[in-house]
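Run log, item B.
One chain of 305 residues. Sequence copied directly from the ordering sheet:
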Amino acid sequence: MTTFRTPEDPGADARQPHPNHDRGLDFDLSTMMSRRFLGRFLGAGGAVAALAACTPGQGTPAGPSPSSVSLSPAAPAPGGISSAPASPTVTRAITECGVDIPKETAGPFPADGSNGPDALTASGVVRRDITSSFGAFSGKAEGVPLTFTLTLLDNANGCRPLAGAAVYAWHCDRDGKYSMYDSGLANENYLRGVQEADTNGQATFISIFPGAYPRRWPHIHFEVFESMSNATTAGQVLAVSQIALTQAACEDVYATSGYEDSVAAMRRTTLQSDSVFRNDGGIYQLATMTGSAAQGYTAGLNVTI
């Protein structure tokens, strides 16, 4: 028997009315499955065993030694954004082969062609710095700098790096709004971009720290594609998931100017109550983070597929 994680509450990402926001679980499932095959899902028994073995405070799970990956330092950020500190070494339990990254909904704002807007086929979407809009649009997202790196690992082949795979990442701005969807942002496409994984299976994005909004823990969405050509044609996807940001980093950033609305939203949500991460408290999706609100943050996550 396979296990599919419940997609996020259809209202969880909604601050502004949108025709697709309230179609619920059936809409999310049909949208994702009709366009693409999502790959392997965790077996129910295996998932329970893996989570029990990886519970914080219980030590390292049994099995092969973790293949921790040292992330590369962030390159200087263009556009006047100060670069974040060097990425940490990711040593989370997700590096144990046999545990796939949990599969999640893309949410109501993917702009991947599944529910209207499609950023993936637009010229300019392949980029490292996603803080500004591209193509015919010129807006820029303001906020605390955030550089995040996803390390893609092939679960079926001993966690070998998935060199040449591609990642499409997107998230809300510091006001909790999404480009291409929310009121006033229909003609902006910032905080969206595609990167090809290097020989280490790593794809890095320069962005800003996302805000918090009601019923969702601060997060970043991503889709993994087999190749760059698949990504830029909105083709077959290998995995859809989300990165959970750490509480300490969020509280630090949300105490700064511009993130005032995020303070109240975060007080009402925990990883355990979040509509996506509540199954396991985000244990396999919680980023490793370093930095400060003053200097910017760096996040890293190993993504085993």
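Observations after the first pass:
- DSSP finds five helices and eleven strands in the chain.
- The first strand starts at residue 69 and ends at 70.
Flagged for discussion on Thursday.
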